Amino acid sequence: MEITLKKAVLDPQGVAVENSLKALGFDRVRQVRVGKYIELSLEAPDRDEAALQVEEMSRRLLSNPVIEDYSYTLQEAGV
To answer: What pTM was estimated for this model as a whole?
Structure first.
């Protein structure tokens, strides 16, 4: 799962990273946005139920839907 600030929300951590990269000589960097990457494993009877659970977890705890967007990919165990 990837969680990022919505485009309209200022990303102070991204600005700090961008400024630091430029200070290190990476002058072509134009914008940095910092987010979260989460891996989780869960048991579900089928893919639809897994997606429902991940959606609910994302909305209720893993992201702040007011200021963040999220996306995820489901994979079967062992793949």
So the answer is: 0.82
